[in-house]
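ARCHIVE CARD
SHELF: 3
SLOT: left
DATA:
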Amino acid sequence: MGRDFSRARSWCHLGKAGELRSRGAEEQAKFVDLSQRIGIKTARINGPRLFTLLPMLSDYATCLETVRAQHPLVHNITNYVVMNLTANALLAVGASPVMAHAIAEVEEMVGLAQALVINIGTLSDDWIVAMQKAVTRASKQGIPYMLDPVGAGATQLRTRTAQQLLAIAPPAVIRGNASEICAVAQATVKTRGVDSILAVEAALEAARTLAQQFGTTVVISGPVDHIISAEQWVEVQNGDRVMAQVTGMGCTATALMGAFVGAGGRGVASPLVAAVATMATMGVAGELARQEAKGPGTFVPHFIDALAHLTPADLEAQARILSH
């Protein structure tokens, strides 16, 4: 989140009217080529090969309205560092958070929730068992779960735990940074000393592999957020650099995704649309909070306020979403 939209590489802008604006033949060719290499399908519109448009911004804004109306209960098994922040963020958007990781109660708690969020940031043997039990119960009851593979690739325990959870049941959404997504997909990418386009390409390929293998939506967080399904690819260009200086912003995004997917699971939106709406909500709220904050220390309370006051109209007006 947070790159200047005026410098965006994509040549498609999905605006309020859903119009398609050409950003030059060179850019078109570059992203058509990349989409083909990672297997994202393109469409032909009036002759030239163009990327397929996804839902209008009003559809993403409706997701926020739905969360506020339905107040989905989101069961979080998440890390110690972010529990308070993610709970407050969920409350701010209108959801109802519960943090429960005791083995004796996770299955019962999952049964009460509209969505489950699994975050592997602070693992222990008991927590891994609790996560596995929760995912198993969620799968049996048709409750969507989000997987945040924090630190996957850093240690064998984290990578193995993420892959074990995937083996139990596919999540509705996997969200991580580029290296985490590559690690979960068992891909490799050097992120230092390598052109950033190559790093993005590797992560997109890894995301598509996961999306196809597990029938899931994959979110790659970064200066630009990429949301990938088996056949669709969307960018969200909102956010601010200060968000990278605050612990738990990515984890917060995954928690909010639980609310958006949980509410959307009642036929309102697909996981991909809900994921795009989540990242746009995070980014717009981050931009609004930065206008009031003096730095990372004062950013968080302003961010929670921005989430609480954000309206679907604000999201529709300020979200910058690119469809490939």
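SLOT: right
DATA:
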Amino acid sequence: MNTIIKKVAVLLFTITLCVLNVLSQTDEETVRIKIGGISINSENHQVLDTCQIGVYYNYTYPQKSESIIEKRSDTLFLAIGKNVSVFLDPLYKEKLEIDRKARFARSRKAKLINNEYSNINDILEVININSDYKEDDPGDPVQIYKNRNALLVSSIYNSYVDNIQCDQMINQMHEWEIIEETDTIMGYLCQKAKINYSGRNYTAWFAKDIAVNDGPWKFWGLPGLILKCSDDDGLFEWVAIGISNLNADIVKDKVVYEKIHIKGFNNFVKRMTNEIIVSFYNNDVLYMTNKEREYERVPIEIIYD
């Protein structure tokens, strides 16, 4: 638990620095945190709602390397407004911008840039002890917006090249089975509920004392905030580890999104995140290419309507 608390503290400190760096404005203007999208320019944001509550979740999920399945965990963030929420990696935007600036700075140090190779395996022999090898992995690129009034869940993938959106009306979120069983999570009395979505059975614990109809990932539809949710196979789990009141804007980037079905969206994200960008030097030449991950994530959605 101490490790989790330290992790949340580091995240809060880092996000504060990000806000001060990205949203520096004149003394006459009010500095507001912008949650969502990847643009660091507030003029490129569409404000969807005002965020009132922020919840950090420890997300545990499986990854597969060859035939071995291992568990990993990340800290994700749910920003909740009156009608709209967004669930995302809270550091992805800043890491993406840091990596972009670092690649630009590295390119200025080189006399020539070589990006002719599509995979690092083609040029492994060029790497040496002085190559200053670097891998760019900014985190989870998917941001999930819920519009509770419209009963709409929108999954968005933003990058400097592609902007993809998948809209879903998830009817199963009206089909929770509420069970007369309770537990205490983060000091809140929670009630049990069960649901089946996209091929998996889930058990959730929601707090009636937090009268917010929302939760992690795509989950919502209960008379209280979902503080814990896990699938019955023990593969995926979201557990709340921090809650705070916020005064921020929930935003998305003002770009043209390509709309696709959920299966196509998941396949696209898998393809885009299967590799990471790597760069290194050799004789004043900066090589930039891709490297396949040593693992792949186990898909969370396995049945599509």
